[in-house]
Write a structure and sequence with these properties.
about 180 residues, elongated, about 50% helix
Length: about 180
């Protein structure tokens, strides 16, 4: 008798896996493993994923909301899907993109294309972010982060007081800056 086993994962403490769990239950999953952990975490530390994988038997179907719940990179996802298919385990996504039982021998090709596209998308986002930072840097735009503790005028005053031989403590007191900002 085949079983449908669900696996849900979110990456951060601010996210909630409840929606995935509800969707997996509605899809008929008998057992649902879930965790709140980043894919950047060592795979061995993803206890619920490991427990889920160990529980699967030939003929079972692993159900996930989306393919990226199974791994971070195309290679990782494809290797996992290949290993599961070798065990006779099918994989189905709730977004309808993958159902290895229905795809048969075409499953590895389709999985490879989809995960490859996801990886390209992540790389494009990274490139756009770097381009935006470079543009803001070149045009004097806001880069975000912690604001400077003092403006160029104050920096000039600090240099002037340093040239007069004042101590860091005296300069800090005169300018209202911390000793570490003056140093």
């Amino acid at each position: 008798m085949t079983r449908q086993i669900g696996y849900a994962r979110v990456s951060t403490a601010q996210q909630d896996e409840a929606a995935q769990i509800e969707a997996l239950a509605a899809a008929g999953c008998e057992q649902i493993f879930h965790e709140r952990i980043s894919t950047r975490t060592n795979e061995a530390d993803r206890a619920e994923l490991q427990a889920c994988l160990v529980s699967l038997e030939a003929g079972d179907t692993l159900v996930v909301a989306k393919l990226d719940r199974l791994g971070r990179t195309q290679v990782e996802v494809i290797n996992r899907l290949h290993a599961l298919q070798e065990q006779g385990v099918h994989i189905r996504t709730l977004d309808g993109l993958i159902n290895t039982e229905a795809l048969g021998k075409m499953a590895p090709l389709v999985v490879g294309l989809l995960t490859g596209l996801a990886e390209v998308e992540r790389e494009l986002i990274r490139e756009r972010t770097l381009e935006s930072v470079a543009y803001r840097r070149a045009t004097g735009g806001d880069l975000g982060g912690r604001p400077r503790s003092y403006r160029p005028e104050r920096a000039s005053l600090v240099r002037e007081l340093q040239a007069q031989g004042k101590s860091q403590r005296a300069i800090a007191a005169a300018t209202g800056l911390s000793k570490s900002a003056v140093g």
